[in-house]
Design a protein that fits this description.
There is one protein chain. Helices cover 14% and strands 28% of the residues. The protein has 138 residues and is of the alpha/beta class. A hairpin with a 7-residue loop joins strand 6 and strand 7. It has one helix at 2-21; strands at 57-63, 66-68, 71-75, 79-84, 107-111, 116-121, 129-135. It is built from one helix and seven strands. The structure holds copper (II) ion. Copper (II) ion binds at residues 90, 122, 124-125, 128. Copper (II) ion (CU) is lined by residues 90, 122, 124-125, 128.
């Protein structure tokens, strides 16, 4: 609620500032059909509340038959998101996770909840290897 007020004030200030310069021709008709995106917080019982302490997402790009970066270090609760940028199909195969076939542009995301070192590869090209090191979040 407070944030919305601040946004409104900022927008209003900008509106005033533009109005004061007065030396610019009016911008071409703006489309008034912009509907604000309302996301009401309903107490629906089927809505799982987001954990307050959400981890970050670390990106790994699959390109030229290589995981890049080859090794990432994250905290428990963080996720790794792989994205295949090759024309070739790749997968991400680890001890506790397994993606489907990733075509160009496809992503696969896995949330790591347990600390440890996870060596993984591509099941189609097992010479492609990578490592995720998960450190216990204090
Ligand atoms: Cu591959």
């Amino acid at each position: 609620m407070k944030r919305e007020l601040v946004i409104f004030m900022v927008l209003f200030s900008i509106f005033l500032a533009i109005g004061c310069t007065g030396n610019k021709p009016a911008t071409p008709a703006e489309t008034p059909a912009v509907t604000p995106v309302e996301t009401p917080i309903s107490p629906g019982s089927n809505v799982t509340p987001q954990p307050a302490n959400q981890g970050k997402i670390v990106d790994v790009v699959i390109q030229n038959f290589t995981f890049n970066p080859k090794a990432v270090e994250i905290m428990t609760g963080d996720s790794v998101r792989w994205k295949n940028m090759d024309s070739a199909i790749h997968t991400v195969r680890g001890p506790t996770f397994q993606s489907g076939e990733l075509r160009k542009g496809d992503t696969y995301e896995f949330l790591f909840t347990d600390a440890g070192t996870y060596n993984y590869d591509c099941s189609i090209h097992p010479s492609m290897k990578g490592t995720v090191v998960v450190v216990e979040k204090k």
